[in-house]
Amino acid sequence: MEQCSEPDADGRQVCFGKSTPAPKGKAPHASEKAGAAAATAGVEWCNTDFESILATRFIQCDVRTVPVIIRMDGVPQAVADFMFLRMLELDGQNTFTEHLTIEPAQQIPLAFREINFVGWNHLCETSCTPQEQPVTAWKGKPWWVPGEMHSATLTTPFSWDTSLASTDYRFKPDIQIDANILPADGKIRPFQTGYQWSLDYDGGTEDLDRIRCDTPQETLRRGRLRAVCSSTSRPRTRSTRRRSRKPPLTRG
Hints:
The protein is mainly beta. The chain contains two helices and 16 strands. The radius of gyration is 19 Å and the shape is elongated.
């Protein structure tokens, strides 16, 4: 779904449009962009320069093209496409990590003066705690003006309560991103809007980032409590373009 600011007195607003879905049936090839490559180090198949939805038992990867739109009375005036890459990396124990990379998919139109991602908030269910990072934690600055094509990556760890034995949790980590978007027509104050990951799933992929974490009873009998996290969804591969590298899919 589109996520928009309120229109101003002139009928103008900004929106994050619905992301481009990833067509079925083909595996991705790796992007050559250095920023995304650094964020997905060791997981080459996650670093694609087009839409893809990929998963193994311990790694989940969602790459989206998300348009930033300036509208007047509901009619688009300018569109800047961004690539959002979100990788959830599970360590098989009591933590997991989100790597979020944002970069322009093409040159930003001159109708924009600046697109600035100014805030972020992670969500998770009871017993799951995101460790929010300061703005200085971004690798690459999270704002762009026309002519800039750099990447920006934010890494956020999550932890969860492992104090109870024989406990099974289902977590669905989410992120809200706030942006200030300034048109290039002399407007002094930027439009403010946001993008929430869970509000923009492609059909049938809503459970991709659902995570199961548990504390098996048998580990308590051995004198120590061992926490385990893994993906709950059957891994799948959905993407575009020709085959290059493919993640090792688990079965079950």
